[in-house]
Design brief:
This protein has 279 residues and is of the alpha+beta class. It has eight helices and eleven strands.
Length: 279
């Protein structure tokens, strides 16, 4: 499934507050057969793992997870079900389990907002230092699909950037960026290692960015991307395509971004639109 949408350029602020989650609880039918009980346990373990995973994302368990018995009572499941859930989370890299120290959070992903238009450094204010390893910065003729989205002639040149983006020295994304030439060429002399592209575009254009079309999907990291992102081949990655326009509606920046799904959580806030508002 691919999620598509549009986001706008806001004022800059720090990380957003997280939202509470609802805990789902399931019970096992008395007298069910062995296969049914195993299926129910697996379903319950998945629910427990999902809730704990999201709780970790939301900042819960700063001093470690509760004991297995406490989790079993909280979720109203068996201790074996809790063990299955915790084993899954450990295999995914979310938690560490150590004798005498108990179960602790191994790492927390950072939030990336979907409902506002910000660069990575702007988004991760307060999380750490964002730096970019610029692998390619050049002028080239893009693929026809890129030219079409940027509303350029088929043989018109663009500036192409390829950057590995790191948070406190840890790789979190691989960004491939196509910029229209009048905006991109001046950026070749800019400090691309410590700056987001968005503020640089606004400086060169002399006006603010307006909005962007987004397309978000998921995939498994291929061998090449896995090396770039410092993950195992087959690890989950988020694929973001973002076409950004100036305030006057002109498209100037097309990005293809691969993000580590274990280090970035996409968040947003949406409003209900009633049918009468679409008329």
């Amino acid at each position: 499934m691919t999620t598509v949408g549009r986001t706008r350029r806001p004022g800059i602020s720090g990380p957003a507050e997280t939202l509470p989650i609802l805990i789902a609880m399931e019970s096992m039918q008395v007298g069910a057969g062995t296969s049914t009980r195993r299926a129910a346990r697996a379903d319950n373990a998945r629910v427990v793992a999902d809730v704990i995973r999201q709780s970790i994302v939301d900042g819960a368990y700063p001093t470690g997870l509760p004991l297995e018995d406490e989790l079993a009572r909280e979720f109203r499941v068996s201790r074996n079900t809790v063990r299955v859930a915790l084993s899954s989370l450990r295999a995914e890299g979310w938690i560490d389990r150590t004798p005498r120290l108990g179960t602790t959070v191994a790492q927390r992903p950072v939030d990336h907002r979907l409902d506002c238009l910000r660069g990575l450094k702007e988004t991760l204010v307060g999380y750490g230092e964002v730096r970019n390893a610029v692998r390619i910065a050049t002028v080239l003729v893009p693929p026809p699909v890129v030219a079409r989205k940027l509303e350029l002639a088929v043989d018109e040149q663009v500036v192409y950037l390829e950057r590995i983006r790191q948070l406190d020295g840890e790789t979190i994304s691989l960004d491939l960026t196509y910029l229209v030439s009048d905006i991109g060429i001046p950026l070749l002399d800019a400090d691309l290692e410590t700056n987001d592209v968005f503020p640089l575009i606004e400086q060169v254009a002399g006006c603010a960015l307006g909005d962007a079309d987004l397309s978000l999907s998921a995939a498994a990291a291929d061998a090449h991307s896995a090396v770039d992102l410092d993950v195992a081949a087959g690890s989950p990655v988020l694929l973001l395509e973002r076409l950004t326009r100036l305030a006057d509606g002109r498209p100037v920046d097309l990005e293809y971004i691969r993000m580590r799904a274990d280090r970035i959580t996409m968040r947003g806030n949406v409003s209900r639109i009633h049918e009468s508002e679409n008329r």
